[in-house]
């Protein structure tokens, strides 16, 4: 049983489940979701503070479960190419969700709703709804022990926004909280540097947004680290090199499972 994650730009997580594809639901406009309306396949789960988080599952629940977590400015639909790929669907059970402040999830505008613990609770709510176990991301490891996870997959990613990116705050208040909220990668980095957590770090050879070496410098000392640079891949490696990305991730997951992680 594993938990694999791709963080800041994206995140993947592997776990244990028993469920099936979600039904199609109608999303009604509310002030909390900026009056968004849509018809989507998925479900709403309620986080501990009452924030509604939109999530979706696809694939065979008997397969190793993987949770996909997008980064800033994106949404769960960023993973459409993966979720519509029959090979991915046949190999793993996939769950994705819109993080708070993004997509179809609620967008709270008070500072208390953006405490780091709240995002960990969002993930917990998704994991509990799909009956998953062992999870991870920087926020989550601030509030759970290292054995809450099994491994991490970073795709052009860094532990938190403060490490590499400095951006001006957009106009929407919710977006300002996304960018400026306090984060701590201490729990995550301690787990990696103590050898308790495996990490697959994927980079695109032609990525113009995230630089490989500065990103690796942030996680310096990570003991169980595998680095993969995909040739001719841009920032969104799973789109620019879908077959190579899929092969790299699934092979790494298979190796982790063989090791009993």
UniProtKB/TrEMBL annotation:
<keyword id="KW-0732">Signal</keyword>
<dbReference type="InterPro" id="IPR029058">
    <property type="entry name" value="AB_hydrolase_fold"/>
</dbReference>
<protein>
    <submittedName>
        <fullName>Oxidoreductase ephD</fullName>
    </submittedName>
</protein>
<feature type="signal peptide">
    <location>
        <begin position="1"/>
        <end position="20"/>
    </location>
</feature>
């Amino acid at each position: 049983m594993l938990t694999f994650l791709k963080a800041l730009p994206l995140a993947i997580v592997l776990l244990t489940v028993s469920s099936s594809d979600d039904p199609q639901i109608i999303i009604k406009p509310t002030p909390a979701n900026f009056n968004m309306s849509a018809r989507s396949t998925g479900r709403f789960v309620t986080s501990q503070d009452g924030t509604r988080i939109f999530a979706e599952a696809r694939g065979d629940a008997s397969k190793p479960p993987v949770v996909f977590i997008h980064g800033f400015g994106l949404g769960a639909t960023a993973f459409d190419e993966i979720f519509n790929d029959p090979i991915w669907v046949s190999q793993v059970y996939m769950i994705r969700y819109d993080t708070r402040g993004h997509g179809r999830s609620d967008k709270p505008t008070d500072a208390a709703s953006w405490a780091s613990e709240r995002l960990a609770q969002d993930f917990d709510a998704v994991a509990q709804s799909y009956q998953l176990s062992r999870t991870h991301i920087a926020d989550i490891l601030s509030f759970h022990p290292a054995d809450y996870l099994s491994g991490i997959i970073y795709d052009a990613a860094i532990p938190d926004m403060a490490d590499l990116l400095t951006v001006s705050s957009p106009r929407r208040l919710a977006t300002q909280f996304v960018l400026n909220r306090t984060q701590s990668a201490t729990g995550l980095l301690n787990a990696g540097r103590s050898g308790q957590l495996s990490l697959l770090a994927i980079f695109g050879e032609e990525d113009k947004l995230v630089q490989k070496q500065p990103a690796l410098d942030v996680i310096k000392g990570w003991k169980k680290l595998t680095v993969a640079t995909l040739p001719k891949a841009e920032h969104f490696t799973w789109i620019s090199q879908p077959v190579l990305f899929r092969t790299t991730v699934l092979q790494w997951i298979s190796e982790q499972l063989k090791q009993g992680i």
